[in-house]
């Protein structure tokens, strides 16, 4: 059972309220030091509360799926068990290339629980996908059959191009190999301690643009400081 204080909720109505919030250390407001720990505590406190409302057309005002915190935690922990088994002793690196569906969060947070997650843009071209999988030494790819078909390949073709890849799990409705794997691993525990200081995610998509923006901001800040000192 967690010994942390419950999450603090405050009304902000004045400058004094803002200053009061700023005095709080964010670490003291969280129920855990990792995503998994926070999810586990949320599932303990509010197991049947909605954690994810998945909206899908044509009626975007009515959720097509409602995932509770209990179901979310179960999905994350089952994913972690699957990925650890598939890695077979190698560092677990899981690339997640799916549209915005709950399984994408199961896979991403499950991957972080036991190794490294590599979230990928579903519109990434095949050559770039294969390049990222090789550069990160990915052990599992979670994607959809439609995404692969749009690139003219199947799971076997991707496996043949990436030496470290052990499995391609598909999120495909009733024929989902990802869901089948989660069902097989439901309830299995992963004996790995949560470590908030371990690298848990690699963000390859959009990285060059973000780096340029960061450098530009730093350059602007330096220029501003030089101008201030000169004045």
UniProtKB/TrEMBL annotation:
It holds the Pfam family AMP-binding. Residues 40-190 form the AMP-dependent synthetase/ligase domain. This is AMP-dependent synthetase/ligase domain-containing protein.
């Amino acid at each position: 059972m967690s010994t942390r204080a419950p999450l603090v909720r405050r009304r902000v109505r004045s400058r004094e309220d803002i200053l009061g919030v700023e005095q709080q250390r964010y670490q003291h407001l969280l129920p855990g030091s990792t995503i998994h720990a926070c999810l586990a505590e949320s599932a303990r406190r509010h197991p049947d509360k909605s954690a994810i409302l998945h909206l899908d057309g044509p009626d975007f005002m009515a959720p097509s799926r409602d995932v509770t915190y209990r179901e979310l935690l179960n999905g994350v922990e089952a994913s972690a068990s699957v990925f650890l088994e598939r890695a077979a002793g190698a560092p677990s690196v899981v690339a997640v290339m799916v549209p915005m569906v709950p399984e994408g969060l199961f896979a991403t947070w499950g991957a972080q629980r036991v190794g490294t997650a590599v979230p990928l843009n579903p519109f990434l071209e095949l050559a770039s996908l294969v390049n990222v999988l090789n550069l990160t030494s990915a052990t599992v790819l979670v994607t959809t059959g439609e995404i692969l078909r749009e690139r003219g390949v199947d799971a076997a073709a991707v496996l043949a191009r990436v030496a470290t890849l052990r499995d391609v799990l598909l999120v495909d409705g009733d024929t989902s190999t990802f869901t089948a794997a989660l069902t097989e691993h439901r309830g299995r525990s992963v004996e790995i301690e949560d470590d908030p200081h371990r690298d848990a995610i690699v963000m390859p998509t959009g990285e060059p643009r973000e780096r340029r923006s960061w450098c530009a901001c730093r350059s602007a800040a330096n220029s501003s400081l030089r101008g201030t000192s000169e004045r």
